[in-house]
Amino acid sequence: MGQIRFLTFLLGLFFTAGAAATGFRGFEWGTTEDEILEEMGEPLQRRGDCLIYQDRIIERQVRVLYCLDDGNALYRGAYVFQDTHPMPYNKHVEDYEQLLPMLSERHGEATRNEVIWRLPALRINKPYWGHRIASRDLELRATWAPPATQVEMVLQGGDFNKITHYIEYKSLESMEQRRQQDRELL
């Protein structure tokens, strides 16, 4: 029963609160900070160019980031999962694998789905992947390309054996503008 409730909730999340065809959580790319604040209220915190809120999805705590460019327009959004799981951290891998088909159903087939080993000699069986991810030896990464948006899910290690799991939505137009600005600097 819990599994059915979990899947129903997750499908509802991605079909209603996930990325719109051209934005994030119902906000179009280019939405201003004032418009986000009017709809979402005051954020939990502000860090750099991002407004950070807390929410629950798939029965997990997440930070929801709305990131604004220099023109004060939404160009990126993300879900950063806050849950920690005990060693050997395989529950993180299970969470990632559970989201893959749901994101594919929402955004089409992944354009990239990678298992990246930093040291190929350390390749081990899947039951130990969580520990290898925490040690920064392994990273899981998948990318989708719905209209006007790039969606990327990443599971990677961090400092002190911390695992980071996030789903990031980026405006393709904004990404191209940033690449152009970078080229002009060279």
From TrEMBL:
Protein name (database record): Uncharacterized protein
Organism this protein belongs to: Alkalilimnicola ehrlichii
